[in-house]
């Protein structure tokens, strides 16, 4: 394994100097997307934009709701309209649950960047996702091709903050058996990002608001070898219902529970609407009581979709700001982003994998091996995605056979991400990257190791 690491380092240095040279980047440019925001990376249990601690201050953004499966950032006019509202709220992040991986997102991503907005993106769609009722069958090469194509479409925007490998796949104790497949997808995404020479865009999971197994899932996504662990963990939390407090809501107990967690942790959804929302939790979330453990969160949700969580009401091309909009705007204005590092942990080890129990139905630590036909995407790229009108993946493709060996996944990402002015460049256009990755695989084979 040391020999493999040495040759990976050599290939990384070569790709950094050759692939990322100005001449080669300019030759591969396909757009003039704005790059006004620094890329965000993980350090210890926190996010950083350059040398500054980055706290997520955002909203969940899916106009039309999940049932319509529309891409909200492919519509340029609506995107620019709403970007102005995001800026007015004082946000720095939006979460989008569904995108079309065949659409062009250059203009919207540039508008978001100009407004100071990063994108937290779910790579799954209703047709291409892990089916909690049949996780083994739905974890196949057709599915992976779709999510890899989504990575290709967004990896080269500097304001792509992170990718969610799944959202609420586990929603009760009986579905915890899906965990190995969620973790395998996360591993595969991280390997794909590294193999294709993208910057190290964080990949992690968004867990449901289920108290009985949420902490076990957090431990599970952070246990094992480095190539098996996530880059962050997020969960949905509606336990603070105004009027409340740090103690009444139980948030103090959660901070204590996750106090030794070594990955960035944030709320992928929050904002209980049982009572009138004043977003009093904002003051706590960005206070020293929480910043050593939490990196902010995303309010659910931007547009009113019939469940009374909306900050705005969209009527055709116009937007009406609702009472919750003003409440959140006021809360964020009263609570600016913390200065300094917030007491984050500079380093930390893996968690212990949770043991099987009545609320955690996972035996052993092994993960499914990547389906054999999907291995070629690591060196050849995913190609064109299926978009939102494809045939679907849950009953298609070749499934996994066997268990992956520890240490067989992650390849360190190299510096081939776009410079200013390069937009949605697909991995298949990285001319020398397949050669480099193929060279690494050949060397690994010669040394008797399995890289993929």
From TrEMBL:
InterPro entries named among the record's database cross-references:
GH (IPR017853), Glucanosyltransferase (IPR004886)
Q: Membrane spanning segments where?
A: 430-451
Q: Give one GO molecular function term.
A: hydrolase activity
The signal peptide here is 1-20
Composition bias type Low complexity, residue spans: 391-410
Q: Which parts of this chain are annotated as the region Disordered? A: 381-410
Q: Give the record's GO biological process terms.
A: fungal-type cell wall (1->3)-beta-D-glucan biosynthetic process; fungal-type cell wall organization
For this protein, the record's Gene3D superfamilies field holds: Glycosidases
Q: What class of enzyme is it?
A: transferase
- Mode of membrane association: Lipid-anchor; GPI-anchor
Pfam family name, one: Glyco_hydro_72
Question: What GO cellular-component annotations does this UniProt entry give?
Answer: plasma membrane; side of membrane
Q: Name the Enzyme Commission number(s) assigned to this protein.
A: 2.4.1.-
* UniProt keyword annotations, A-Z: Glycoprotein, GPI-anchor, Hydrolase, Lipoprotein, Membrane, Signal, Transferase, Transmembrane, Transmembrane helix
Instruction: Give the subcellular location.
Output: Cell membrane
Functional summary from the UniProt entry: Splits internally a 1,3-beta-glucan molecule and transfers the newly generated reducing end (the donor) to the non-reducing end of another 1,3-beta-glucan molecule (the acceptor) forming a 1,3-beta linkage, resulting in the elongation of 1,3-beta-glucan chains in the cell wall.
- Do you know which PANTHER family this protein is assigned to? 1,3-BETA-GLUCANOSYLTRANSFERASE GAS1, 1,3-BETA-GLUCANOSYLTRANSFERASE GAS5
The UniProt family comment states:
Belongs to the glycosyl hydrolase 72 family.
Q: What protein name does the entry list?
A: 1,3-beta-glucanosyltransferase
Q: Which organism is it from?
A: Glonium stellatum
């Amino acid at each position: 394994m040391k020999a493999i690491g040495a040759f990976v380092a050599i290939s990384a240095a070569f790709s950094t100097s050759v692939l990322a040279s100005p001449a080669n980047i300019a030759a591969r440019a396909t757009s003039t997307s704005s790059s006004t925001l620094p890329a965000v990376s993980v350090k210890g249990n926190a996010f950083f934009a350059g040398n500054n601690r980055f706290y997520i201050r955002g909203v969940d953004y899916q106009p039309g709701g999940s049932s319509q499966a529309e891409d909200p950032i492919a519509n340029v006019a609506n995107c620019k309209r709403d970007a102005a509202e995001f800026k007015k709220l004082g946000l720095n992040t939006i979460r989008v649950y569904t995108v079309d991986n065949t659409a062009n997102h250059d203009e919207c991503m540039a508008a978001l960047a100009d407004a100071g907005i990063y994108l937290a993106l779910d790579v799954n769609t209703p047709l291409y996702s892990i089916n909690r009722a049949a996780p083994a069958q739905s974890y196949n090469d057709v599915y992976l091709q779709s999510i890899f194509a989504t990575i290709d479409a967004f990896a080269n925007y500097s304001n792509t903050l992170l990718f969610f490998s799944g959202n609420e796949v586990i929603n009760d104790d009986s579905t915890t058996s899906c965990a190995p497949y969620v973790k395998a997808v996360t591993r595969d995404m991280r390997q794909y990002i590294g193999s294709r020479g993208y910057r190290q865009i964080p990949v992690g999971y968004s867990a449901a608001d289920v108290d009985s197994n949420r902490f076990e899932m957090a431990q599970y996504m952070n246990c094992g070898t480095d190539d098996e662990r996530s880059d962050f963990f997020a969960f949905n939390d509606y336990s603070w219902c105004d009027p409340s407090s740090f103690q009444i809501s139980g948030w103090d107990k959660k901070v204590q529970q996750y106090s030794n967690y070594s990955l960035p942790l944030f709320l992928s959804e929050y904002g209980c609407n049982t009572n009138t929302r004043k977003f009093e939790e904002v003051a706590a979330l960005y206070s020293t009581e929480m910043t050593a453990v939490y990196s902010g969160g995303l309010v659910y949700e931007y547009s009113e979709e019939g469940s009374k969580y909306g900050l705005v009401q969209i009527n055709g091309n116009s937007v009406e700001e609702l009472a919750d909009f003003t409440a959140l705007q006021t809360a964020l204005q009263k609570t600016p982003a913390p200065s300094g590092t917030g007491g984050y942990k500079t380093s930390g080890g893996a968690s212990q994998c949770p043991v099987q129990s009545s609320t955690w139905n996972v035996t052993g630590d092994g993960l499914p091996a990547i389906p054999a036909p999907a291995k070629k995407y690591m060196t050849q790229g995913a190609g064109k995605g299926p978009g939102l009108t494809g045939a679907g993946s849950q009953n298609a493709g070749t499934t996994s056979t066997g268990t992956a060996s520890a240490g067989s996944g992650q390849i360190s990402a190299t510096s081939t991400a776009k410079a200013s002015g390069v937009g949605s460049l697909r991995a298949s256009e990285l001319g020398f990257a397949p050669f480099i990755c193929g060279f690494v695989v050949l060397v690994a084979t010669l040394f008797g190791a399995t890289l993929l």
